[in-house]
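Hello,

Our lab assistant flagged a job as stuck in the queue for most of the afternoon. It eventually completed. Since we weren't sure the result was trustworthy after the delay, we are filing this so someone can double-check. Below is the sequence as submitted and the structure that was eventually returned. Let us know if re-running is recommended.
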Amino acid sequence: MCSLFCLRTIMKILADNAEHYTWGGNCEGWHLLKSDKLGVIREKMPANASEQLHCHRFSQQMFYILSGTATFQVNGLIQTVSKNESIHIPNMVLHTIKNNEAEDLEFLLISEPPSQGDRIEIIDYSEDLKHHIRDLNVEWLEKYFRVEKNDEIQLADPKREIIDKGGFIYYAKYNGEIVGTASLLKIENDCYELGKMAVTERAQGSGIGKIVIEFCLQVARQKGISKLVLYSNTSLNPAIHLYKKYGFYEIPLESGHYERANIKMEKILSSPLT
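-- returned structure --
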């Protein structure tokens, strides 16, 4: 009696019969294996092509370079991977790939489980997205505290109050929807406040807060910022625990910054490895 396995249709996968797609405007991919547990894709990136900084909640990935040289940014560090070399990217690790060479870059991308529908992207603030920082923060503030006067001023015009004063605003997108935000607000040339952090309730528990904090730490190091401070409330136990995990420690709290704050924390970034 023939086993179930031998009754399956086994066929060669070629470029002509593989499911084809385009991404990033001018990049291509071919699905060589597409199952619930494993994805294998052959991708091609032309010269100067790149992808958005992102991570995957569940999927770990292996990139194997077939031709060309890939430039990866992984957790803020640059690594080059050449032909017949590979790199493993665990889940929840921010990364991006770019082709800085003149010739096409081709590689195999192996994902376990498949990464489709499992993507967290970090994007910059833009004026057409300005309402998201307000909506996300107001949702969070109204749930736990209240919207204070200084919040109203900053959230009404984030470009003028944060960007134009030397700060930075970032968003987290999960499967195409903006679900989180964080800002670096300039205090002095080498000191910034990590603030205006919020994740919509429906995306909480998905690791978005962890990712935006990690990204802001990477940005701070890259920009030569030596110190970050943040303001919080000890009633937010999970948040305080997370801040301590990333090396923030309590320092004296001045009065008048936020009514809701009963703790101020600081992290020194004098070393690129801290």
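-- support follow-up --
The delay was a queue issue, not a problem with the job. The result is valid. The longest strand covers residues 177-188. The first helix runs from residue 130 to 144.
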